[in-house]
Design a protein that fits this description.
The complex is a heterodimer of chains A (480) and B (413).
Chain A (H helix, E strand, L loop, with lengths): L1 H11 L11 E3 L6 H10 L4 H16 L22 E3 L14 H10 L5 H6 L1 E7 L2 E5 L2 H6 L3 E4 H7 L1 H7 L10 H9 L4 E5 L8 E7 L10 E6 L4 E9 L6 E4 L2 E6 L4 E9 L10 E4 L2 E6 L5 E8 L4 E4 L2 E4 L5 E10 L4 E4 L2 E4 L5 E10 L4 E10 L7 E10 L5 E10 L5 E10 L2 H9 L4 H12 L1 H4 L4 H14 L6
Parallel strand pairs in A: 3-7, 6-8, 7-9, 8-11, 9-12, 10-13, 11-14, 12-15, 13-16, 14-17, 15-18, 16-19, 17-20, 18-21, 19-22, 20-22, 21-23, 22-24, 23-25
Antiparallel strand pairs in A: 1-2, 3-4, 5-6
Helix pairs in contact in A: 2-3, 3-9, 7-8, 10-11, 11-13
Chain B lengths: L1 H14 L4 H17 L14 H8 L27 E6 L2 E6 L8 E6 L9 H9 L3 E6 L9 E7 L7 E10 L4 E10 L2 E13 L4 E8 L4 E12 L4 E8 L4 E10 L5 E10 L4 E10 L5 E10 L4 E10 L7 E10 L5 E10 L5 E9 L3 H9 L4 H17 L5 H11 L4
Parallel strand pairs in B: 1-5, 4-6, 5-7, 6-8, 7-9, 8-10, 9-11, 10-12, 11-13, 12-14, 13-15, 14-16, 15-17, 16-18, 17-19
Antiparallel strand pairs in B: 1-2, 3-4
Helix pairs in contact in B: 1-2, 2-4, 5-6
Chain lengths: 480, 413
Amino acid sequence: MDNRQKEIDNLKDYKYGFSTDIENIQAPKGLNENIIKFISKIKKEPKWMLQFRLKAFERFKVLNEPNWQKPKYPKIDYQDLYYYSAPKSVKDKPKSLDELDPKLLETYKKLGIPLQEQARLNGIAVDAVFDSVSVATTFKEELTKHGIIFCPISEAIQNHPDLVKKYLGSVIPTSDHFFATLNSAVFTDGSFVYIPEGVRCPMELSTYFRINASNTGQFERTLIIADKGSYVSYLEGCTAPMRDENQLHAANVELIALDDAEIKYSTVQNWYPGDKDGKGGIYNFVTKRGLCKGKNSKISWTQVETGSAITWKYPSCILKGDNSVGEFYSIAITNNYQKADTGTKMIHLGKNTKSKIISKGISAGNSDMTYRGLVDISSKADNSTNYTQCDSLLMGNKCGAHTVPYIKNKNSESNIAHEATTSKISEEQLHYCQQRGLNPEEAVGLIVNGFCKEVLQQLPMEFAVEAQKLVGISLEGSVG
Amino acid sequence: MKEQLQRDFDNIVKDLSLSQKDIEIKKFCLDNFIIKGFPNRKEEDWKFSDLNQIIKKNIGELSFYSDYTFTNKVDTSVFVDGLEHNKIVFVNGRIEKIDFDYEKKNQIEIVDQSQIINEFNNSLSDLNSAFTNKSFKILVKKGYQLSKPLIIYHTTNSKIWSKNINLRLDFELDKNSSLRIIDLFNDTSEKNFFNIFYNFDLKENAILKNYKIDRLENKNIKYSFNNIEQEKNSNSETFILSSGSNFFKNEINCNLKGEHSSAFVNGIFSLKNDQHHEIRTIINHLTENTKSYQLIKSVLEGRSRAVYQGKIFVSSDAQKTDGYQLSKAILLNKESEFNAKPELEIYADDVKCSHGSASGSLNDDSIFYLMSRGLSYQQSRELLINGFLLDVVEKITDSEIKNLVKNMIGIKE
């Protein structure tokens, strides 16, 4: 019993709450044209990229921070943030993994990232982002053989300018909303993926983001292009160290699927959610948008959201190509003082387009959770269908669960169905489990995992195991 | 618009003999409205229906003043046949008749309210308070149950044009009392904007049945706000037939304050051409053991557009809440549109709340089934639509009124 208690105590505290002592190169605090020029210069970017950033910044200056969301947060002083921070030792990029700073490797080890042997065993190619600079990319050779490009976006800007120029900002334009525009102006790094025509990516691609330096906003930019008839599954995992102050994370993710291509994007998000009293934690204001550009294309988002003090994001699909398919599977868990306002947008433009939304929300403690989603079937999207299901589970009467779906049907040949329920864990189920020897927390874990099953099934194997554990850990202390 | 408002306001004040204090309150409301103006799509509640634009497009310049110093003739031909009822008759926005002939005199009290109350904090209630000429409060005494329904006639004639008409009525149902209302719109005028506020106060065990019927085709723009306060064991039933006007937004706000109180809202949209209607409901479950049920069905032809925004709010004290909401729409034309925002905001865990929404075309299989049995396409279509809508009409608990509504829609059994 003692051992078990210890184990639970260990788990209760944030597993990834260490910070690594490495010297950082930081740009001075604040946001202005010079900082943007500095970022562009230090990354040795071509002129068009700087123009892209400056254009976004011009737009950013006239935009107002949105305030329609449910979770309110104290005003962020955008001049009090560092917009660039890179581990010093990476300045001269190491040629192989062995040359990496051992401390860095240790950090990744603690995170459980399979960077070296582990990577090989698991067959995952990892592009690890440490603060703002991508430090190591494994499995490059294997991927190159298939003609797949998987590299930090800063490298792609240098080596594949045509592709980047063509697609960057094509789904999330520089003139988009406040946070997306901020990202366009100051993004520092992120991943770039290009899958050539007809190629099925032989392994799952994965990026691990990690915010390390304090007072740093992290602004990555991910761009994934699946050319005709290709397939890729991309995994994103996030952790951040424990700090008392709140940190801002405003990433942009753009997906483009051409004819017959499929992109599967999975996220397990385990940023630092703040402590039990709601102090600290990440503000996760991310813009994720996928464009099904070609015929018969498919984009599928799967997310498990357990971290962040505030999660505010809506991974979306624009179904432009005829017969294209968009899917969204989500589990969002909030505990203590966490807040989440998340959901999706399915915009049907092409004929015979289909979308499916499965969202599971669990709130406990003093937390607040909102599902907010849009299904918009335009007048040209004949014969389209949407199915939406959002279920919420509440634990205790101090938390909230809300559902705000927007449903727009402008086409008489299309069908939309939406269902939502809110309930609590039934006493009978709890009793049943406890009668068979599970303690209350294990019982809750089991029932919640069952509640989320439809979404967990969508995750790739490696992630599913981690996600299941996370579901359990996130709810520790919420019963009894 | 500002000068117009000021000028019309001065005229109103001149006509009415008001105390200095009332004039000040009215002035305050006017100033509020001048600042806020008509709601537009930037406001979340008006996201799908931009009233400012709709008024501009359909009416243009509005005038806010109507001369109420002379009486209008009541056209008795509009009265409902075959159903004995009490009457309140508005002609062009002026109360011409209040008649409770079928009831015991001392059980109903009609109070002329000089005091202006403006408890709903939105720009249209400001407009209403600033320009209403007369507002009555109808009190149903303890234990009295009206034997006949009350029909409120809203009749207009071609004398008014581009006018804003503001109405306000208050109802108080004391313990164990009950009231049935039919809010009936009979307008033959065009291009006017109606802004109607009703407030209902339901004490313990009171029962309200509220049927709102807008069926005759007309080119007016209407906004109606019903606020229902409910105490212990009270019961409210609202039925909306939304069909006649060019634009109509019905808003129902219901506060379930007492245990075992329940609210039912059922609605039908039957629209064609360029009509644009909206129903918005907010049901606030504020205490334990309360219940709400909502069912909205739409049949949309032409380029019509229906909007349903329904919200169920459950406060953290309201354990054992039962809330249900369902909206369904049939789109008959490629250019018709259905927008829905069914919303749940829940802060208590031991609740049963769910909502559903579906929209699409008529089921081809059902049409095929009926046609294979010898019906024409047109007949099959009608049969299916009737069946679809009958579901809502059947929810009406008053059998007399249910039959009346069935006749109005032309549903045959």
